[in-house]
Design goal:
The chain is about 25% helix and about 25% strand. One of its GO terms (molecular function) is carbohydrate binding.
Length: about 625
């Protein structure tokens, strides 16, 4: 490896090259109460296969293996994964996605070269697709992609442990990610393949009588949502000496190139003159757009939402309406947020803040931003469609007499806690959400909580402090110190999370009337010795007592009026996982806390309340 460039093989015959990440990853989801399930994962990488023209071989494979060494693996068609003795043995416990450049070597092998395949314990692929990608302007069409062309190619592989589906997408570097995978929803139960909980992820490659140099230029991998984006500008280049030499003399090349160049310029000028008045002018990309997710076509989003008609609205906030849509390119359901005040600087700030933060955040308990669109003053964000709506809807709606079970509630708050820990401590920057509340927690098909709406989020470097001074958020979730300093912090996010905990446990809103403040209600219940009496009556006492007690107690601790008393999100996780014992309620300053909401509300002027409600979404 040199300057970030990983070379698996050079142009030497019959060699094997393997490279695995040095730390194993957890491949079995041990958090499930059901039978063992394989963990979901997402990976993307850029590879380059440089071959003598018409003589290349044999390909490379993304690999999950129980060991970071595969001794005895053969070259050639075996891709450095198997050998004739162990091929097709279930004891291999290997999953691979192959990018093969050579035809199969017998009647049972892959029949065509230049293909992508799914391999389980064998060189013989379970599924093969000719290497191709869907065109940006014509998603229903496939364009062949030569894997050994010497060009940089990006691959995306996603596995969903819940549905047991794998998707594989490939495309040229520098173009948009194809909207349609090459391999879609192929059924693979990795829990039946993997041997141990901890597995190694990496790559394997080989040559035979035909040779190629196989390079990996960039790679990201995640078991916590979508893999981080790769920055194309930072990718290394293959050595210049790898470029295929030409049999023509330089003088001949120069003459031909000059003549072709003149002809191309004249032809392009004629085309440009003819089309200038007909073709739309595209906006130049701004700096913040360069590192952002996929840019959607406005027409696709307009079609998806049926022209943004009111009947497709699934939510409305301070920055705009959210529409349900179905993409015409692949039929996937999405949620499209359309900024309602496109001419306002606030709307633009919210739009760019959300792209810059959520666009690069990847965690299973955060809402996934698929992409964006900007057309003149129309600002649009495109998310995964989350089918079960918001936590607030499920807690407070009366539809079909639905009651969110305690098991589901406890799982949801643990998930949101994990998401906030990622924002506060585990990402490259500190992210303050500033609007944690039940209506911003969306519930996916597996009833997991996912925190969304990052329009108010602020980022700053670890080891520094936030410089925000404007009060934003939603009444009932605002930490008391915000009225004095206006300075949001991770601690103010923790306060809002504490209110969320009390909401989930009690089934009541933070502020229902001028006479009912949720924190006062819970503190009073505790002081009267009947803390469990604050639990949501709709549960009919169908809850685990120690879990209810820790959620109520932790809610009071997180929403303590003194920010220094509140725990960090890492400590919150430890309490919820029973790794640490929650401080006794008497140590929470409850006698002082009884008047916490009164002191808070008295400190907030009418103007502040109005501004906060306007900012809350």
């Amino acid at each position: 490896m040199s300057s970030g460039l990983l070379r698996l093989t050079n142009k030497t015959r019959n060699v094997v090259g393997q490279a695995f990440y040095y730390k194993p990853i957890q491949m079995l989801n041990t958090s499930s109460n059901s039978s063992r399930n394989a963990s979901s994962f997402s990976t993307t990488f850029v590879f380059q296969i440089v071959s003598p023209k018409g003589k290349g071989g044999f390909g490379l494979a993304f690999t999950l293996a129980p060991s970071n060494q595969l001794p005895g693996a053969a070259a050639g068609h075996f891709l450095g994964l198997f050998n004739p003795a162990n091929d097709n043995k279930s004891s291999n416990h290997i999953f691979a996605v192959e990018f093969d450049t050579v035809n199969g070597f017998n009647e049972n092998a892959d029949s065509e070269g230049n293909h992508v395949g799914i391999n389980i314990n064998s060189v013989f692929s379970k599924l093969v697709r000719a290497a191709a990608y869907s065109e940006t302007d014509h998603p229903d069409r496939d364009r062949e992609l030569m894997l050994d062309s010497g060009e940089r190619i990006q691959a995306w592989i996603e596995y969903d442990g819940a549905t047991k589906h794998v998707n594989v997408t490939i495309g040229p570097v520098g173009e948009r990610r194809p909207s349609r995978p090459l391999i879609t929803n192929y059924d693979v139960d990795l829990s039946e393949v993997v041997k141990d909980n901890m597995y190694y992820a990496g790559f394997s490659s080989s040559t035979g009588e035909k040779v190629s140099s196989h390079y990996i230029l960039g790679w990201s991998f995640s078991t916590e949502g979508e893999a981080p984006l790769l920055h194309y500008s930072r990718l290394p280049e293959a050595p210049i000496s790898e470029k295929t030499s030409s049999p023509f003399r330089p003088s001949v090349i120069a003459i031909v190139a000059s003549l072709c160049g003149v002809a191309a310029i004249l032809f392009s000028a004629l085309l440009f003159r003819a089309a200038y008045m007909k073709w739309p002018r595209f906006e130049a990309l701004e700096d913040w757009e360069m590192d952002c997710p996929h840019r959607f076509r406005y027409q696709d989003l307009h079609t998806a939402t049926k022209g943004f008609i009111n009947s497709e609205i699934i939510g409305v906030g301070g920055f705009g309406a959210v529409y349900r849509g179905r993409l015409p390119t692949n039929g996937n359901d999405v949620a499209v947020k359309k900024i309602s005040t496109p001419n306002s600087s606030q709307g633009l700030r919210g739009f760019t803040a959300e792209i810059e933060s959520l666009g690069r955040l990847r965690h299973k308990n955060l809402v996934n931003l698929q992409g964006w669109c900007k057309r003149n003053n129309d600002l649009l964000l495109v998310y995964d469609f989350i089918p079960n709506g918001s936590l607030a809807d499920l807690l407070f709606s009366r539809r079909n007499n639905f009651v969110l079970s305690w098991e589901q509630r406890f799982n949801i708050v643990k998930g949101i806690a994990a998401g906030l820990l990622y924002l506060h401590e585990e990402w490259e920057k500190v992210v303050i959400h500033r609007d944690v509340k039940s209506s911003n927690v969306l519930i996916d098909a597996e009833m997991n909580g996912r925190l969304g709406d990052f329009g108010l989020a602020r980022l700053y470097d670890h080891g520094t402090t936030s410089h925000t001074t404007k009060i934003v958020g939603t009444i009932g979730y605002l930490a008391p110190e915000l009225t004095r300093t206006g300075q949001a912090s991770t601690s103010s996010d923790v306060y809002a999370f504490g209110i969320l905990l009390l909401e989930v446990a009690c089934g009541r809103k933070p502020v229902e009337t001028s006479d009912f403040i949720l924190t006062d209600f819970v503190v009073e219940s505790h002081q009267m010795g009947r803390l469990l009496g604050a639990a949501d009556p709709k549960l009919n006492s169908a809850f685990v007592i120690k879990e209810m007690e820790v959620v109520l107690g932790l809610g009071l601790l997180c929403s303590h009026p003194n920010p220094k008393t509140r725990p960090t999100m890492r400590e919150v996780i430890r309490y919820l996982n029973w790794e640490d014992k929650l401080p006794v309620i008497d140590d929470l300053g409850s006698s002082d806390s009884l008047s916490r909401s009164n002191r808070f509300m008295g400190a907030v002027s009418i103007e502040m309340i109005t501004n906060s409600i306007d900012a809350g979404r």
